Amino acid sequence: MQRNVLASLPSWCSHWLGYRDDPVKPPPKYLIYLWSFIGAFCGLSVLTALFSYSEYFLSRGVPVIVASYGASAVLVFGAIESPLAQPRALIFGHFISALIGTCVTKLFEFLPDARFHELRWLAASLSSAIAVVAMEVTETTHPPAGATALLPATNEEIRALSWYFLPIVLLSSAILMVVGLINNNIQRRYPIFWYAPVKPQPAKPADQEKV
Q1: Is the C or the N end of the chain the one with fewer CB within 10 Å?
Q2: How many domains does the chain fold into?
Q3: Has residue 211 been placed in a domain?
Q4: Which spans are transmembrane here (predicted)?
Q5: In which domain, by residue range, is 115 found?
Q6: Of 192, 198, 196, the residue nearest 26 (C-alpha)
Q7: Span 60-72, pLDDT tens digits
């Protein structure tokens, strides 16, 4: 299904969405290292530049970058064939974790400030643990998102964002994915799948092939 949908698009479009008619031959190691460096540099530079120089985000106290995206860059640009690096895991893993972290932190904020700070470790641990299970259930496991779940309880800048943390996470994930689509499809292929791995077609029996 996934391949058919992408195959119906013009080749100039489907190529940048990761579709290939034929298997992609891996480039030499030195080119893989080069494109991993370029992709990680460009992806993180776009994120930090956006949040550092946009008055819109500065006025809302958005941090220069959500720290967990440094780890996401390792997957999106350095391990592009891993299921953990595919768009479904990148987008929904971070969003689900951010939502859980924000909700758990909000519950703990009903406590007095002094008590909240004493139990900050519990809020952070619960957030990350619940996020791990939620990602497993939804098949969106993305290891850096475990840190995203921690941030509302442990980072004052993120805590101050409150619910606004969720669109920031969505935007950050989308930007990293777009840079990944451009960079990784020049000489490699990304994503390997969008929603779920494409199951290989069963081989035809030899007697049917002769017919």
Answers
A1: C
A2: 1
A3: no
A4: 30-51, 57-77, 89-108, 161-182
A5: 28-190
A6: 192
A7: 999 999 999 999 9
